[in-house]
Amino acid sequence: MSDTAQRNEKESTAAQSAGASSQKTLSSRGGKEAPAERGRTTIADGVVEKIAGMAARDVVGVHAMGSGFARTFGAVRDRVPGGSGAAARGVKAEVGELQTALDLEIVVEYGVSISEVARSVRENVVAATERMTGLEVIEVNIAVGDVRLPDEEDEEEESDKPRLQ
User: Fold this and answer.
1) Same domain, 96 and 134
2) d(CA 39, CA 44)
């Protein structure tokens, strides 16, 4: 082989190597991202609040969510056409890009172990929120605002009755 032919062959091999390495660099830089990785997903505080509220209500021993005023106001709001539901009542969420923190206010049934109910609420809320949103739940603070006694009537049940009999 002549010197010119050997030089051309080396240049051709070098060009192919450079082309291959530039392709690897291009794909490693994300030139062709998977469709699921294109764009950004944001989750509103209200979405996380509803998920956490529903998960907390599923726990045996939780009678209601929110303070007495919030429950009364919520009962009125639920009756107004177009009023939002009670799913997020008693829940406050702070949502970041990767994590969320939750504050819940609950009313427990009389006779249940409050510490066991709180533990179960935490477990259920963390599991549901992380499964549905993909966010890491860094804390779930629970305030027990009231206990429902067996002989008490709910505000919602009370407001369903006609005033005159």
Assistant:
1) yes
2) 16
For residue range 29-81, list pLDDT tens digits in order. 455 778 878 888 899 999 999 999 999 999 999 999 997 655 455 555 555 55
Domain of residue 117, residue span: 45-160
| Amino acid of residue 102 | L
Name residues whose C-beta falls within 8 Å of residue 67's C-beta, 6 or more positions apart in sequence. Answer: 90, 105, 145, 146
Q: Which pTM value belongs to this model?
A: 0.66
CA-CA distances (angstroms) from residue 37 to 8, 10, 30, 134, 147?
42, 40, 10, 14, 47
Residues 28 and 77 in one domain: no
Cα–Cα distance measured from residue 4 to residue 54, given in angstroms and rounded to the nearest whole number: 77
Q: Tell me the HSE value of 114 on the side-chain side, using a 13 A CA sphere.
A: 12
